[in-house]
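Take a look at the protein record below and tell me what you see:
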Amino acid sequence: MIHRTCMAVLSTAILLFAGTDIFAHDAEGTLEKIARTGEFVIGYRTDASPLSYENADGDPSGYSVDLCRRIAAGVKAHLSEVDIETKFVSVSSDERISAVISGKIDIECGSTTITLSRQEQVDFTIPTFVTGASVLSLTESGIQGMSDLSGKKVGAVKDTTTIDLLRENLQQNLIDANVVIVGSREEAMNRLNRGDIDAYASDQIVLIGQVIGATNPKRYSLLDETFSYEPYGLVVRRNDADFRLVANKAITQIYRSGQHSQIFNKWIGRIGIRPPPILVAMYQLNTIPE
């Protein structure tokens, strides 16, 4: 009996010690992971111009990417005793959250709306941009307001907040439009150009990016009105306060120094778009002192 009891205790101890590495790995924070691997992995979108996309040379570019480059500098300063290399990994809309959760990337720098449901899985930095959902159409279509969508096909990209918000707005305003789910922004633009859909709904800043990159921007018409409030943030791992603080310090430093104006003008203001009052207010409200 004593022999069996000893064996049971020994087996339990072995299992506990064997699991130590597993639990330690699960509990490893982002800063610890970066220090261990020597890499800071930034996830970016290839199709979210002017916030996050690949330029003609295939390099990560855009407003959000510039913010993350500044965060990378902050991470390197925080881990000054370790040589850190910044690595960029492209992520799609449907994998951006899971890539952060799994540790494939350390931060996602794209055009992701801060929502309570998403915060059940991940955390966000302080807000980095504010926009609202709107609708893009071909100028020749004559669509000048949401009411003009009655009887039309309106595309929206899967796994985005736009889908439910669009359906809710159409229902509340008794607009009989058909919402068509598409796989990507590229597909949405291609179907709009072919006439498969009459309009494309997305965050207004995303639609502006599509017009900027178009061969003939005058071919498109973008509604002034919006039907949602979309605060953007950079996605980080849930319950990782230390890394989130490093990221937030870098962002607030940008806001305090006024560098956000340079970044905005570089990627968005260059085509004559001025920061809307709500975005100016966001910058001011998040200029947090040290």
